[in-house]
């Protein structure tokens, strides 16, 4: 698949088939991740791959409870609360695999490097017919001492990107992109400003209220 096609076709997937993801496919995602750029080629990332669905479910429940207990840390707490109070809510959307990318604390530009690696994972997954969802809400518990212990991460590791991975169940409609403001600065010419378009905020159907999928 052409890289530009993968960029346009990538979606945040929140409905997954029960079909497991083969180890070889996960290794291909890791191979794509480590080719991401990093500051001074520091390659600051560390990966944890979880394919034990019972463990993923337990982690999802721990994350849900942590969010309820630490709602003040989330600006979206009021909107999230009904969803998080639902004991059937699975924060990883019943994905059969979880790719967790972490960086050592204190490493300059470590988080940026891990973010670039995460983008490679999601684009490579699209090219392989897989779906992904970066579950930022899970980072709180995963960065607790209990979360790091569950992932067998050292105490100085910081989870940057927990990514649910699996085969999509259907394909979500793309969310419209608006044209950003762009300033062109060329040699010997005054800057040219292209005005952007800022449509009113319209949350996608699965952003908060539609996240509960069984």
Number of strands: 6
Which bin fits the share of residues in helices?
25-40%
> Helix/strand/pairing class, anyone?
alpha+beta
- The proportion of residues in beta strands is 15-25%
Alpha-carbon Rg, integer:
19 Å
The SSE string, one letter per element, is: HHEHHEHEHHEEE
The average pLDDT score comes to 90
Ends apart, CA distance between termini: 31 Å
How do the strands of the widest beta sheet line up side by side?
1-2-4-3
Q: What profile does the largest beta sheet have?
A: 4 strands, antiparallel
Q: Any guess at the CATH architecture? A: 3-Layer(aba) Sandwich
Shape: globular
Parts with pLDDT < 50 across at least 5 consecutive residues: 204-214
In total, how many domains does the architecture comprise? 1
CATH class identity: Alpha Beta
3D structure, described in words:
With 214 residues, the chain is of the alpha+beta class. It has a single domain, classed as NADH Oxidase (3-Layer(aba) Sandwich), CATH 3.40.109. Helices cover 33% and strands 15% of the residues. It contains 7 helices and 6 strands, in the order H-H-E-H-H-E-H-E-H-H-E-E-E. It has a 4-stranded antiparallel sheet. Strands 5-6 form a two-stranded antiparallel sheet. A hairpin with a 7-residue loop joins strand 5 and strand 6.
């Amino acid at each position: 698949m052409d890289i530009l096609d993968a960029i346009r076709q990538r979606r945040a997937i929140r409905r997954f088939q029960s079909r497991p993801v083969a180890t070889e496919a996960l290794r291909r995602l890791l191979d794509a991740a480590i080719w991401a750029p990093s500051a001074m080629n520091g390659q600051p990332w560390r990966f944890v791959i979880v394919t034990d669905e019972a463990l993923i479910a337990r982690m999802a429940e721990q994350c849900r409870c942590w969010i309820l207990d630490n709602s003040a840390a989330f600006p979206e707490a009021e909107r999230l609360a009904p969803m998080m109070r639902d004991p059937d809510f699975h924060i990883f959307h019943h994905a059969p695999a979880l790719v967790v990318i972490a960086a050592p604390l204190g490493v300059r530009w470590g988080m940026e490097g891990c973010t670039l690696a995460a983008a490679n994972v999601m684009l490579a997954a699209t090219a392989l017919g897989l779906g992904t969802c970066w579950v930022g809400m899970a980072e709180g518990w995963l960065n607790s001492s209990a979360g790091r212990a569950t992932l067998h991460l050292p105490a100085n590791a910081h989870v940057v990107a927990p990514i649910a991975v699996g085969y999509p169940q259907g394909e979500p409609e793309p969310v419209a992109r608006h044209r950003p403001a762009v300033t062109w600065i060329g040699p010997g010419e005054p800057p040219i400003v292209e005005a952007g378009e800022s449509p009113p905020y319209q949350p996608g159907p699965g952003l908060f209220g539609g996240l509960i999928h069984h």
